[in-house]
Each structure stands twice: as C-alpha cells, then as structure tokens.
Amino acid sequence: MTQTIAVIRGDGIGPEIMDATLHVLDAMQLGLSYEDVDAGMVALEKHGDLLPKASLETIARYKVALKSPLTTPVGEGFSSINVALRRHFDLYANVRPAKSFPNTKSRFGEGVDLITVRENTEGAYIGEGQMVSEDGQIATLTQKITRKGSERIVRYAFELARQTGRKKVTVVHKANILKSTSGLFLKVAREVAQEYTDIQCNEMIVDNTCMQLVMRPEQFDIIVTTNLFGDIISDLCAGLVGGLGLAPGANIGKDAAIFEAVHGSAPDIAGKGIANPCALLLAAAQMLDHIGKADAATRLREAIVATLEAKDPALTPDLGGSGTTMSFAEAIAKRVAG
Which domain of life is it from (predicted)? Predict the structure, then answer.
C-alpha cells in the first residue's frame, strides 16, 4: 500500500539534501510517494506567503511531512516558520536523538546514545507577551507553563522509553529558582512518573545537566524538559556527537508529525553539492519509525553507519570524503538496498 508524504524541499541546501534523502528512500522500495509543499522563500516568491494555506492543508491531509531547512527573512512574515508550523498543528513533542557515529569529528566517538524530548508549544521560547518600554530601558515577556502541556510531554517521554526499551528518564528543570513555571513542570512530572514504575526517573537542574552532559553523557538515556531548556540542551547534545549535520528532529502532535534536519539552510554552500545529508536521512529514519516501518528505519540507520565506518570516499568533505551530497546518498542507497 502506497503512503504519501508531504515534502518541504526548503531553502539554501534544502533541495539538495532532500533529493539525496528521497533517492535513498526510493532505493528501499517502501511504497512511499511524495507531494511537494511550498514553504519559506520559495513560497514567498511563488505565492507571496511564507506558509501558504494550501501547504498547511496538504500537510493536514497526509499527516506526515519531511522538511528541509527553511529561511525566515528578517523583518517580515513569521518570527519563525518552524514555530508557526508547530503552533498550527500543535506539534507538542520535539524529539532529538543524539548518538555517537564512527569516524566523525566529535569528542565522543562512542558512548553517547540519548534522546532529548522537548516541550514544543509553550514557555519562554514561544515569546508571548514580548514588550519593550517606551524609553527602551526595560524588556519583558511572558513565560507560561501549563499542567496540560507538562503532563503530555512528560507522558510522551515515558511512553517513548517503554517503546524503545530505554530504562531512565531525566526530568530537567530550574524549579529551585523558577518556582512557579519550572516548579509546576516538575510537580506534574513527578505525578506522571509514579505511573511508570518500570522506568527510573531522575531529576536534574538544568545548569548541572549541561555540565554532566559534557563530562559524562553516557549517564543519560531520555531527557525531558521545557521548551527553551530543550532547545539549548538538544544543540549541546548534537555538539557531543559531531554537530548539527548529524542531528535529526521530529515534531509530533496528535494529528500530524513533521520530521526535519535541524540545521540551517546554509546559503553559503547552496548549489555546490557538498552538503552533508545525514541529518535529513536520520530524520527520515524517525519518520519511518513513526509510520510503522521500524525495520526499514533500522536498515537505514545501519546503512548510514556502515558508510561512515568504511570511510567511503563518497562521503562529503565535512566527513573526510571527497564526494558530493548525491554520491554520499548513492553509497548509502547501495548498502540499504543490499
């Protein structure tokens, strides 16, 4: 049975890494078809809108989208197209795995295998109630945390632990200082944790978490936290394993899910054919897990690892090869098809 995926090709290097990713998925013969969805600068040029209504309707129809990086122009449109998508579809769970890969430029060649689960729809990161005083001396914003938002993201983290065979969830907070907002998050997390006695629950203050991640990342399994803390921690974790070029992300809600490379559109190398497609390929693996093709997701991840382990000359320059975006994809496609 064919399943259609909404595809956002993105800006900058986005179309290049999307072509590479779809080449690999096609080689796997999974019965997937694709419908292109305009967003970002391409959409602005074609439709006069960064995020056209027709694009939102297509994503809603298929419920699953694969997204390359988008550029939000300064001074116009949305403050962030990504935030707009998350709000529109209520994509409350941002799921960012970080795993050691062989032969990469990272401080941890092995031992890192963790997932950051970040609340995606509320908190300081959303920027509600932003205001600057008339004299320009005082800036304020509203940070809002809800019981509903806290409960569903913590429950998602514990359910993910069960589904993936992980044994520990670390609740990251700043309740010692932010006693109302972070305090509510921690209180709700403790209540939810009592329902999952098979999963170890730890609590850790966010600043200590950052230090511990740098010193002993192997102690973490799943981290669950609020929006702003999760944004920072997930990038820190990407840095542990070689950078954003190896960092996929999933944005998951009740009725839709969008899977993405979390790095930027890199306009400085757009069109040169040297962009590393790994982040989007790994996001595609998350997508395959989501749509019930877990065996295919495992096969894709194993093919990526095998290509890195072989130090295949088809690798992109950032990974020590002399290849192109598409030659890297072709090397993975050969392994995943075999």
Answer: Bacteria
